[in-house]
Write a structure and sequence with these properties.
α1 crosses α2 and α3 (36-56) runs parallel beside α5. The chain starts with a strand and ends in an 11-residue tail after the last helix. It is α/β, with parallel strands linked by helices. The protein contains 9 helices and 6 strands; from the N terminus they run βαααααβββαββααα.
């Protein structure tokens, strides 16, 4: 599958948000920033992955001990990029999760987590390799497969109408097991007491996502201009230093490019 075009949820979203950013990131391969919220997300993903994998692999140790080890291991891995405030915030989120799963266990409501951070690579339509990672897969009490993605966003509003990422994960599930007729999918909001934004999709809805990836592939491969789409998010862009439109968006009084002598 080495000659096919490779695409992911993040690549699609980058292209749709700003074509110039797509070019800077995936074609020019310019260096990317390591921002605090990126590190926070990776840190929490690591802790939760190690915690659940321990029990998937048969560990019988109490939750608090396993979580403590998972947290310490993540601190050691990310300590170079973590400030004290970031560490405290992550501890607060993970502590909240530990309380939730402990309460659920007392109520005999333990989530049947099947996999964490599951990598996938799938040829779609004979022309695009869809790749990525599913944060969490579990089997709910009603025997419905439930895929989930952890989110550390502070603003959850934009997620309530954006299920493209979760539909992609559902597509992976039904492709691996065509007998599945529906999949449950959730965003798990770490900064909002692990609130779930959940929706169920039937197989007919799920398989349609393949058409989107084929369409996005055609658009990207035929793109000529890669024009910027300046917005308030430019201030967070990895490539603001090379994008005159983004600079102007942030500081309209500034002039970039040619000047009169």
């Amino acid at each position: 599958m080495s000659n096919e075009f490779r695409l992911s949820v993040s690549k699609c979203k980058t292209y749709l948000d700003c074509k110039a950013k797509y070019k800077y990131t995936y074609i020019d391969k310019l260096p990317r920033k390591t921002l605090d919220f990126h590190t926070t997300g990776k840190f929490c993903h690591k802790v939760l992955e190690d915690f659940h994998n321990a029990y998937i692999n048969g560990d019988q140790t109490p939750y608090n001990i396993v979580m403590s080890k998972a947290f310490k291991d993540a601190v050691n891995e990310y300590k170079a990029d973590m400030t004290l405030e970031m560490k405290k915030e992550c501890w607060g989120m993970i502590d909240q999760y530990l309380k939730l799963v402990t309460t659920n266990k007392k109520n005999n409501n333990v989530a049947n987590v099947l996999a964490c951070e599951k990598n996938f690579e799938l040829l779609v339509g004979g022309k695009v390799i869809l790749n990525g990672m599913i944060d969490r897969i579990q089997l709910d009490d009603d025997n419905v497969i439930h895929v989930a993605d952890y989110k550390t966003t502070k603003n959850k509003k934009y997620l309530k109408d954006d299920f493209f990422q979760l539909l992609t994960y559902c597509y992976i599930i039904v492709t691996e097991d065509p007998s599945i007729e529906k999949v449950r999918a959730s965003y798990i909001l770490l900064r909002h007491n692990f609130e779930y934004i959940t929706k169920e999709f039937n197989k007919k809805e799920i398989i349609k996502v393949a058409d989107k990836y084929i369409d996005y592939t055609d658009q990207i491969l035929n793109e000529k201009e890669f024009a910027p789409n300046p917005s308030f998010t430019c201030r967070y862009c990895d490539h603001i230093t090379v994008c005159s439109a983004g600079k102007k968006m942030i500081d309209p009084s500034s002039v970039y490019g040619e000047v009169a002598w």
